[in-house]
Amino acid sequence: MSEVASRNLKRSAAIMLFATILVKLIGGLFKLPLASDSVLGDLGFGYFSAAYDVFTPIHYIAISGFPVVIAKLISDNLGKNNLFEARKIFILSRRMIIFLSLICFVVYLAVLSVIYFLFGKSFNKFYSLYAIAPAIIFCFISSCYRGYFEGFNNMTPAAVSNIIEAFGKLCLGLGLSLISICIGFDISVSAAFAILGVTLGSLASAVYLRLRFNKERKDFDNTLKGIKDNKIGFKILMISLPIVLSSLTTSIMAFIDSLTVSNAGGFLNLNINYFASLISEQKITENLLPTVLYGIRSKAFTLFNLVPTLTLSIAVALIPSISKSFAEKNTSELKENIGAVVKITSLIVLPAGFGFIVFGRRIMELLYGVGASSQIGGIMLTVFGFAAIFAGFSLSLAGILQGIGKQNIVLLNIAIGVLIKILLNFILCKIESINILGAVYSTAISFFVIFILHFIVLIIHTGRITSIGKNIIKPLLASFICILISYSFSFIDNSKIFTVLAMIIAVIIYFVALIWLKCIEESDFYLLPSSEKLIKISKKFKIIR
Predict the structure, then answer these.
(1) Cβ(440)–Cβ(384) under 8 Å?
(2) Is the per-residue pLDDT at 158 higher than 90?
(3) Are the CB atoms for 168 and 200 separated by under 8 Å?
(4) Whole-angstrom Cα distance, residue 144 to residue 214?
(5) Predicted TM-score (pTM) of this structure
(6) CB of 105 within 8 A of CB of 133?
(7) How is the chain split into domains, by residue range?
(8) 288, 289, 293, 507: which is deepest, by most CB within 10 A?
(9) Dihedral sign, Cα of residue 12, residue 13, residue 16, residue 17
(10) 233 CB contacts (<8 Å, ≥6 apart)?
């Protein structure tokens, strides 16, 4: 791979990675106080999460489903110096996606209305489910423009739009919910106001992308006026479906839990005596218990989801480059790209996953106190630590496979994992001693199966992964070292201060271990601004050689 290509590849990944980190930090400022007892609490957060988990698949489509397809097709044509065809693909895909968004919006409202008619007003989640409905259209529209910019290897508009959406959720969602609580609305209504902030944030994102695109609209009007090509539209749809569906892996898992464990009469074995202390603590009835348990599960899931979301952003950023090198049959560049994806994924998922495994309960206590959220949610987060490792690698491997045109196999692997998830939910959640934890165990096992299947397919079609020691083993050793030292330190005291200090120490030790193991290379600094200066400084202090 040329030095210029390597820099472009890693800088594209860096833009999406840093934007995703910022978005997740903003999301933490939104969800953590929202889930606290002073705002929505476990019950209100259960209402919120039931609707948010319906929105999540739509959001994944907007950030990593259709944009991946559009970016891939545009990138392929740019690789062949066919600018006209690339722009034509965008115009046709935009028409198709807007049409699909309207169909999905109407179908969603129709299905929701039928369910509302059957269950009546006692089903309090409906306020939130209706509040999220317009976001379907806004997110689909955003996906068109994200895909266009990413196809031209311009990740900045997509990154900025994600940040705008996150700020919208934080300011409007949290603000509206707090106002509604002060007024004295029911907690289910306050949850709906929080969801309304999510909808308004997605609207702001779509408006920004449209305004950014308007700078190039004149050129489009002159070259593509009146364009029609049904064959290309059909091709886009056929390529889109497996990639869009495969991008929903994490959100599908959450959606399955929403359907199977968040409602009374679901898969849970609700022995009232088993949860007597929780009912007493939360002052709830037996009918509301599933929603409370789902709210606790959603708190742990929110932390877990940080990891696969970061790796998904990497996959989205690098798919065009992988697709381009594969289309050009540049084997050496393709292997370098795959190695870069694997290394960046390892550097993220391994320390994060092990951190959840070791500090799961301490993290939940730090965020939500010593009540049911930490007692039940702490165990969940520990199990989610294993799931985070396999989910992170699964999404990155799925991005690689999509880049080399194996999206149908990716979809098949995910379908197998989803079927396992449903089956295990049905079996495990019925066991009294496991109960709500069954939804967490099934998620970890399902992602493990998907990871194994993706890995086998990747080896078959691309050969062995190069530089395993550098890309996987060294980050693994660094993760073990940092977690071991920080865990030993945490024994000094169980207070929140020492928990925070242990995490800070873990981060410092991790980077020191990476330097000691010579895992950091000069090319990795291309991720950062002013990379040339940083490289000189790093060489001076022997961080790199």
Answers:
(1) yes
(2) no
(3) yes
(4) 13
(5) 0.73
(6) yes
(7) 3-466, 477-545
(8) 293
(9) negative
(10) 92, 93, 95, 96
